[in-house]
Write a structure and sequence with these properties.
Elements lengths: L26 E7 L2 E10 L2 E7 L8 E2 L11 E3 L8 E6 L6 E6 L5 E5 L7 E4 L5 H8 L2
Antiparallel strand pairs: 1-2, 2-3, 2-5, 3-4, 6-7, 7-8, 8-9
The structure holds zinc ion (2 copies).
């Protein structure tokens, strides 16, 4: 598949729908970050298990919780509802080689985040038939 790289300015895109592979919403309206429902993810490292909350504005690195994890170590990320792993099969961070975690977005999109504490690498993947993308890029 061809890859098209699109640069998105930080915080120009609000993640308002994100799910685990089993379809559970990862947004928690009871916790607000950046004025909107935060993304809630269960983080695990050995015996430590803690729910962390991410700012839903794409590109914002604000994280609430997770103080028990050592910066530079890798955590495993899970759905807080069914505890399924969010780790992306085989995808690694281009900066630090840690596994990436997948958040499913609507219409085949995926937001990926590095699972190393303190590494803020993330990327968006959008699968598209090509038609909508062509319209978007070339104004057809
Ligand atoms: Zn789930
Ligand atoms: Zn990384």
């Amino acid at each position: 598949m061809e890859r098209v790289i699109i640069e998105v300015p930080p915080e120009s895109f609000l993640v308002s729908v994100a799910t685990c592979p089993n379809g559970h919403s990862l947004l928690d309206p009871s916790v607000k970050l950046g004025g909107h429902a935060a993304i809630a993810i269960l983080a695990r490292q050995g015996a430590i298990e803690e729910t962390i909350f991410l700012n839903p504005w794409y590109g914002n690195h604000e994280v609430q919780g997770g103080a028990g994890f050592v910066v530079g170590s890798v955590v495993s990320l899970h759905c807080p509802h069914c505890k399924v792993s969010l780790t992306a099969n085989g995808d690694q961070c281009v900066h630090c080689d840690a596994p990436m975690a997948n958040l499913k977005l609507p219409n085949g999109g995926v937001a990926q985040a590095c699972t190393r504490v303190g590494c803020y690498y993330h990327r968006l993947r959008i699968q598209d038939s090509g038609e909508r993308l062509a319209r978007f890029l070339f104004g057809e």
